[in-house]
Amino acid sequence: MENPTDRPDRPERPDRPARPVAGRRFYDGANRPVTPKQFRPDRGGSEFDDRPARPRGRGGSDNRDEAAGDRTGRSDRGESRPPYRERSDSADRPRYENRPAADRSIDMLFGLRPILEALSAGRTLEKIFLLRGTKNSLVSDISTAARAAGIPVQVVPGEKLDGLTRKNHQGAVAFVSPIDYAPLDGIVSGLFEEGKVPFLLLLDRITDVRNFGAIARTAECLGVQAIVVPGRGAAQINGDALKTSAGALNILPVCRENNLQETIKFLQQSGVTVVACTEKADEAVGATEVDFTGPVAVLMGSEEDGISPELLRLADVKLKVPMAGQIQSLNVSVAAGIMLFEVARQRVANS
Question: Which of 156, 232, 282, 297 has CB 3.0 to 4.6 Å from 200, enough for a Cys bridge?
């Protein structure tokens, strides 16, 4: 039987390019290295075969430094090569993979004394976490000052605080709010004094920060003059909420009230009609003649169970969003946009 290695080399077909030979290097017209398939001698390309082929296998050394030449663009054989470029984009980019997310936040305070001093200075805090079982004068002072300022305080175990930060928190962690909350009574009285018709939005326990940001963005676009949120159970206003709102939270006043039931009663006594958006309503928005051109406060419920029963009983008007599909459920930010649009539509038509 004939040995395959003794066969003469087969002639190359004229319609196909020659097979690449080990040890050859190919360059295009700009003297840049290319693969054999990209080699085009008709466009000024050139090839060199005076260098040995790169050894293969794990045991061999490919001598990459000799083949690549120095970083000035010249190889050791005198051939012109493209300059070597350092990749600085990844080196200049900050790395956070080995750092916890809480430590990257610039809106956090930890330690009993710093939190107490922040409260004394009047800084707006979003929420305060205190270690369960800690009893000393500083903890008592923080609780008293936070209660007077309407800042929610939550007593948590040590694992919760350790998950927020790895620093020595001394049993106290607080989040600094990126916005300053406005007093609702001042907003309402100011609107009436300026001759404006109040258009407010009440949010009952909206917990998703992106939903909250999207609602704030829609509310600002449709002419809402203030958003009211509860002191407990609401989404934390942080960087994600600000980004989702597209900057609306820097323009639209946000009021934080400890008791939304008292807030609704205050608005009703001030001549504001409270309209609740709930699937439990019998009438649909747009299908009934409800005048939204006067002072109005739209009430939206949480993502899980909607408006609280005690708040729903206090509402002056209850409406639902008409739906013809099979899901029969809307995201709260979408439902809020539909309700706010109806109010804005009537006001524009009446102006």
Answer: 297
For the chain, how far is it from start to end, CA to CA, in angstroms? 101
Residues 6+ apart with CB under 8 A from 307: 204, 276, 277, 278, 299, 300, 301, 315
**Are 334 and 214 a contacting pair, CB within 8 Å?**
no
Residue listed under structure tokens 């899901």:
327
**pLDDT tens for each residue of 334-348:** 999 999 999 999 999
- Measuring CA to CA, which residue among 169, 116, 157, 121 is closest to residue 138? 116
Q: Name the nearest CA neighbour of 297 among 343, 250, 231, 233.
A: 343
Distance CA 326, CA 330 (A): 11
Decide: helix, strand or coil at residue 33.
Answer: strand
As a whole number of angstroms, the distance between CA 339 and CA 351 comes to 19
DSSP 8-state code for residue 80: B
Question: Is 0.85 surpassed by the pTM of this model?
Answer: no
Which DSSP symbol is given to 208?
A: -
DSSP H helix total and E strand total for the chain: 11, 14
Task: State both tokens at 104.
Answer: 């990257």
Q: 299 - beta bridge partners?
A: 202, 276
Pairing of strands 199-203, 172-176: unpaired
In one-letter notation, the amino acid at residue 329 is S
pLDDT mean across residues, the chain: 80
Q: What is the DSSP string of 141-153?
A: HHHHHHHHHT--E
For the stretch 138-192, pLDDT in tens is 999 999 999 888 888 999 998 989 888 888 888 999 999 888 899 999 999 999 9
Instruction: Report the Cα 282 to chain-centroid distance in Å.
Output: 36
Question: What are residue 108's DSSP bridge partners?
Answer: 175
| Closest by Cα among 117, 120, 244, 225 to 178 | 244
